[in-house]
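Hey, can you fold this one?
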Amino acid sequence: MKQFRRVEPTIVESIGGQYKRQIVVKTFQTEDDQLHEFTTYGAEGKRAGAVIAVTKDKKIVTMYQFRPAPERWMYDLPGGGINEGEDPQVGIIRELKEETGYVPGHVEFLGELDARDAYMNGHWYYYLATDCALSETGRQLDIEEEEQGAEVRLITVSELVENAKRGDMTDPVAVLLAYEKLQSIGG
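Sure. Predicted structure:
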C-alpha cells in the first residue's frame, strides 16, 4: 500500500457568483517520488452537520429542496454550516430552528465524520432530536433557501429510511447512524 504525504503546492480558488464555493487542489507525494494531484470541493476546516428531528407525534422533520448536482428535488435533513467557534450541537439546533421553525425537547449525538465524500473537505456532525415542536417565531430561512422555495415536509420513519435507500435524500449516513433508534420510534 502506498503512503501518501501531503506536499505543496495547495491551490485554493473560490468559484461561483452569489453563492461562492471553494475548490482546493491538493498535492501528495508517495514514497516512489510520484506526485498525485487531487481536486477537492469545499473549504478545508469547514464544519457542518445535520439533525434527524422527530416530532412528538413521531414524524420526521425534513427539508425538500432542489439540489443542483443530481438536478432534482430531494429530501434534506435540517442542518448546515457551523460557525467558527460555535459548539456543533448549538449550531445544528440553530439550523433546525432557522430552516424549519422546530425546536427540540431532547438532543442526542449520533456521530461525526471527516469523510462524507472522497473529494469533499470538511467535518460533519450528526444528531437525533426528539420531542420537536414548532417555535413561536417560526422559520428564518437564509436568502438562498427562500429564493429556491425550500419546503418543510413531515414524513414517517419508514419514508425516511426508504428515501435513504433510494438515494432520494442527502445525508443518508445519518439514517444509518440512527437506524436502531429510528426502529424503536416506529412509523
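Residues 88-100 form the longest helix (13 residues). Let me know if you want another pass with a different chain boundary.
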